[in-house]
Design a protein that fits this description.
Length: 390
């Protein structure tokens, strides 16, 4: 299978990026070092190419109603220019993908899916929109997606993009709220700017027509370099999202996991109603309603390492024996690590894991089997890192 390339592929190669396959796309893993790129995002800003993400337009008089039926959230009630984190689930409540949905017009929505799941999401939306006066179109190839993340992101974006009252919906850039969007200009080109991201920092994600992606990338680099901005790859993005306690599909989320299992049951709107007051029977509702009434069989927790060796995805979580076993066993297994790494910001290992409810309380001392050795960890609240808000 030939990997797909984003419109910025040549830029990454020119910057000396190490490239890797990710969801069928050739993407930059790193440009210099994982640590330097991670720290730049926390202290100044990082520039990310996210053009591998899937983009799906849902339009028409019943677009909101179709999404209410297809997804777990109440998208028809989303304000214009707003954004919402949501999920698309199977009939049994398992997560097919986690999404961000933007309302770009009265009858216009833009759905962003993970690269590896974009085809699955597209097919599901097409099936679920049948019977509604709504059109579902794959527009992934139309745009590139560039993110600027970090405490200096607003300064950089403000220098490169211009406000335009005709396409901004009356919102000024300085007034843009978290999980909201507005139209701006890059030269003569209209772009969509959203105050969203996947790093735990303030930042912006910018949709630009693919032919203008290189020019925008270069302009953001030029404006950002004096402020400490660096291009950042997938490796830094993963360590940043882990510190911020954000789930990753294929790790914390999959088809065997419901939103309630992942600790985000709040996004499931079981009480959705249509404009005429009729309850909305969205796909997966019955299973999710039943799951909401049951005690959890497993709980997603944060783990803080008190040693030096990091846990990795798939490693067993065990309950330490009060007295070491003569046979050298590490204790009964009580869970599995879903994501883990050293935290560059905090200076110690962190991990997310699904564990049995009886060992999920904050402060519980556990261990992770790291290649046959019990490494000590303690249960802590998520997220591990929370940015200071000015």
């Amino acid at each position: 299978m030939t990997e797909k390339k984003t419109p910025l592929h040549a830029e990454h190669e020119a910057l000396g990026a190490t490239m890797t396959d990710f969801g069928g796309w050739m993407m930059p893993l790193r440009y210099t070092s994982d640590l330097a790129e991670h720290r730049a995002v926390r202290e100044a800003a990082g520039l990310f190419d996210l053009s591998h993400m899937g983009g799906i337009a849902v339009t028409g008089p019943d677009a909101g109603a179709a999404l209410d039926h297809a997804l777990v959230g109440n998208l028809s009630k989303l304000r214009r220019a707003g954004a919402r984190y949501t999920m698309i689930c199977a009939d049994d409540g398992g997560v097919l993908d986690d999404l961000i949905v933007y309302r770009t017009g009265e009858d216009e929505y833009f759905v962003v899916a993970n690269a590896a799941n974009s085809e699955t999401v597209l097919v599901a939306l097409l099936e679920r929109a049948a019977g509604f006066d709504a059109q579902v179109r794959d527009v992934s190839a139309r745009d590139a997606l560039i993110a600027v993340q970090g405490p200096r992101a607003a300064q950089i974006v403000r220098e490169v993009l211009a406000e335009d009252s005709e396409i901004s919906g009356g919102t000024a850039f300085d007034e843009l709220r978290y999980y909201a969007s507005l139209g701006m200009r890059f030269g003569e080109e209209a772009v969509l700017v959203a105050r969203t991201g996947y790093t735990g920092e303030d930042g912006f994600e910018i949709w630009v027509a693919a032919p203008h992606a290189v020019a925008l990338w270069r302009a953001l680099l030029a404006a950002g370099e004096p402020r400490g901005l660096v291009p950042a790859g997938l490796s830094a993005r993963d360590s940043l999202r882990l510190e911020a306690g954000m789930p990753l599909y294929g790790h914390e989320l999959d088809t065997t996991t419901t939103p309630y299992d992942a600790g985000v049951g709040r996004i499931v709107k079981l009480d959705k109603v249509s404009d005429d007051g009729t309850p909305v029977e969205f796909v997966g509702r019955a299973a999710l309603a039943a799951r909401a009434e049951r005690a959890p069989e497993r709980v997603l927790v944060g783990l803080r390492g008190t040693g030096r060796r990091p846990a990795r995805a798939g490693y067993p979580v065990v309950q330490p024996e009060a007295v070491p076993s003569p046979d050298g066993s590490l204790g009964p297994r009580v869970g599995t690590v879903t994501s883990g790494a050293p935290s560059p910001t905090l200076g110690h290992p962190v991990a997310m894991a699904y564990v049995s409810p009886e060992v999920s309380a904050e402060g519980t001392e556990l261990a992770v089997d790291v290649r046959g050795r019990a490494e000590p960890f303690v249960v802590v609240p998520l997220p591990f890192y929370r940015r200071e808000r000015g």
